[in-house]
C-alpha cells in the first residue's frame, strides 16, 4: 500500500509521480540527489518520513544536499543559509527565496516524487 510523505509545494492530487529509487538509497538523517526530468531533487530521510526539495540554494545556486542537516533544516555549504526541509522556506540570510518542495510517496520499497504535469 502506498503512503504519502509530508510536505510538497504541489498538490498530491495534481502531481504526477515518478519512481526515483528505493527507500534504502536515502540514509537516515541525510539526503540523496536524484535527476528527475532535468531537475536535481534532494530527498531527505528525517525521523518522520521523506521530504524532497530542489537541490539548489536560491541565494547562489549551491548544492543543498552537500550541506549539513540539523533537525529539519539543511545548511547551504557555501554561505550558511538555512532552509526548512519540510516546507522549503528560506530561514536565514543570505537566502530570502524558498526552494521548491515536492510530495514524496513510498510504495513498498520504491521511492516516488510528485512533479507537475
Helix amount: under 10%
Please state the CA-atom Rg, rounded to the nearest Å. Answer: 13 Å
CATH topology: Rieske Iron-sulfur Protein
Report the uncertain regions.
1-8
Number of domains: 1
Features:
Rieske Iron-sulfur Protein; 11 strands; 117 residues; 0% helix; mainly beta; 4-stranded antiparallel beta sheet; disordered N terminus
Walk me through the structure:
The chain has a single domain (2-115), classed as Rieske Iron-sulfur Protein, CATH 2.102.10. Helix content is 0%, strand content 44%. The chain has no helices and 11 strands.
Task: Indicate the topology.
Blueprint: E1 2-4, E2 16-22, E3 31-36, E4 39-46, E5 49-54, E6 68-70, E7 73-75, E8 82-84, E9 101-102, E10 104-107, E11 110-115
Antiparallel strand pairs: 1-10, 2-11, 3-4, 4-5, 5-9, 6-7, 7-8, 10-11
Quick overview:
This protein has 117 residues and is mainly β.
